[in-house]
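Here is the promised in-class demo. Please do not try to memorize the tokens; focus on the logic of going from shape to residues.
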């Protein structure tokens, strides 16, 4: 597999828009605030870090790395923070130059962004980076294929026979492009695979409240709830694995 960087259009405020998906990587109303509202608050973070020995987050759509860096900043502020693993997937990884331009919009994250950029050299398949003492595992390729290579220590409440490749996932960030424009990342089989890797009581959050996405999540085994969206968006979705 060869790596193909995304074709980008840069909107006002240096908001990157993927031409192939006709969608932006983060909200023009504020990417940092959006991540905090949808993905951190939607998963009960950073409060859930407290009292854990380790915590694992997984994400569909690494994009600019904004979700990862925002999470990392919140995690660093917890006095007794757990060991953190962040697992993510990206089919079209940005070049270092594209990443640097997008992340320059968030000066409060710049020290962490600099660490990420220094280590950024993605290869097809699984890449493991250590950023600010957290483990970033990024799969470059089709998430529907790469997720089959992951095994957590828990599957349907029981230990797997094979050696785990990741800890059980405590929180999911479902952040693919719009379901209407990128349905592959909201596929029923992919979401079922995600649920199988999720710890009991694990959660999810996503900006979309599309009916067919909710039904796919429920079929995968998550309990789903609609809640207030970001920046005037009426609804988003959170979920929990019983």
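The designed amino acids, position by position:
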């Amino acid at each position: 597999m060869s790596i193909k960087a995304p074709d980008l259009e840069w909107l006002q405020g240096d908001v990157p828009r993927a031409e192939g998906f006709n969608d932006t990587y983060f909200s023009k109303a504020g990417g940092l605030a959006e991540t905090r509202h949808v993905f951190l608050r939607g998963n009960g973070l950073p409060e859930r870090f407290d009292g854990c020995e380790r915590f694992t987050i997984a994400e569909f759509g690494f994009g600019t790395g904004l979700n990862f860096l925002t999470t990392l900043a919140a995690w660093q502020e917890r006095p007794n923070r757990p060991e953190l693993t962040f697992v993510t997937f990206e089919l079209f990884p940005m070049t270092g130059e594209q990443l640097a331009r997008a992340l320059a919009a968030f000066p409060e994250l710049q020290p962490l962004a600099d660490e990420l950029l220094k280590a950024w050299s993605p290869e097809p398949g699984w890449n493991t980076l250590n950023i600010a003492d957290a483990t970033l595992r990024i799969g470059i390729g089709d998430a529907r294929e790469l997720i089959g290579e992951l095994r957590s220590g828990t599957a349907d409440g029981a230990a797997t026979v094979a050696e785990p490749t990741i800890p059980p996932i405590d929180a999911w960030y479902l952040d693919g492009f719009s379901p209407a424009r990128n349905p592959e990342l909201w596929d029923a089989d992919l979401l079922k695979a995600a649920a199988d890797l999720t710890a009991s009581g694990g959660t999810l959050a996503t900006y979309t409240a599309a009916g067919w996405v909710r039904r796919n999540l429920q079929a995968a085994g998550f309990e789903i709830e609609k809640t207030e969206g970001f920046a005037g968006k009426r609804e988003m979705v959170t979920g929990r694995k019983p």
